[in-house]
Design a protein that fits this description.
5 strands, three-stranded parallel beta sheet, globular
Length: 85
Amino acid sequence: MTPLIGISTYREQARWGVWDELADVLPATYARSVERAGGVPVLLPPGPAAAASAAVARLDGLLLSLIHISEAPRPSLASGMAACA
């Protein structure tokens, strides 16, 4: 079965065609890389933690993209990230 790989996106003002809106965006390189590796990319917009947990539970993997961070990470997240380094 083909693995579903979630990729975090970020929200920012974007312009294309007649639109000038807030959009959940991600450079296409991320999704293309997952496809080349044999996975199906699933874009994950920013949202409530409960919704994110439910979505991530259905995935086979998770790719955290480079995101714009406007606040310091919670201590539990920072310690988990340090353990992965």
